[in-house]
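Appendix B. Chain record.
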Amino acid sequence: MKTILVVDDNQELRDALTEYLGRSEFHVLTACDGEEMWAHFNQAEPNLIILDIMMPGDDGLTLCGQIRKRSNVPIIMLTAVTDEVDRIAGLEIGADDYITKTFSPRELLARIKALLRRTQVTHGEAASHHLVQFSGWTCDLIKRRLISKEGEIIPLSGADFNLISLMLEKPNQLLSRDNIARCIWGRDAEPFERGIDVQISRLRKHLHDDDRSLILTVRNKGYMLASDVITV
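C-alpha cells predicted for this chain:
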C-alpha cells in the first residue's frame, strides 16, 4: 500500500482526500502546516506528497524546496486557478506536477497513479542497464542521479529523472512537447504549457548546458538531446 501525505490547511479538503484516496487503497496521512508535515515525513517516508502552495507559516514553495534538499519523493502542488506564476515556481523548485484547486478527485487520482508509475524504477528493471553515459556525464538509473565527469553528484526529482530518461532512450531524436508531457506527467501538453519549458530549463541547469548545445531547441517542434549514448 502506497502512502500519500496531503499537506493543506483546509480541513474539509484533507478529510475529502483521505476518504477518496483511501477507497483507492492508498494509506493517507494529512498535515495542516509544515511542522506537522515534517513529523509525518520523518516517520512515514511517504511515496508521494500533495502540497498546497498557500498555507500559514512556511508556504508550499518553501516546503517543496526544503523537501528537495532531502528527498526525490514525487510532489504534486495544489495551486489557485489563476496562479500560473506559482505553478511555474513550483516546477522550478522541483515539484513533479501541479493541479488547480478546481480539480475533480478522479483527475487527481489519475495524476497520482501516473506519477507513481513514472517515478518508480525497480532494481530489476534497471539492473541490465544500470549506468548510461553521454557527453562526459553518467546517469545512474537505480540511484536516480547524474554524475559529472568531475564526479559531481546531482540528485534528480521524479520529473527530472523521467525527462532525462526519455532523452537517453531517444538521443539525437526530436521529442515533441506532447512526447515530453506524456513521459513526465502522463498526459498531453496543454495549450501554452510552460511547465515543459521549465523542466527543460531545470535539466539544462543540472547539465551545465548554458549554451544549449547539449539539449537543442527545435523551434515550434520540441527538443533534442544532441549526444551519443553508451549503456554500461
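Further analysis of this model is presented in Appendix C.
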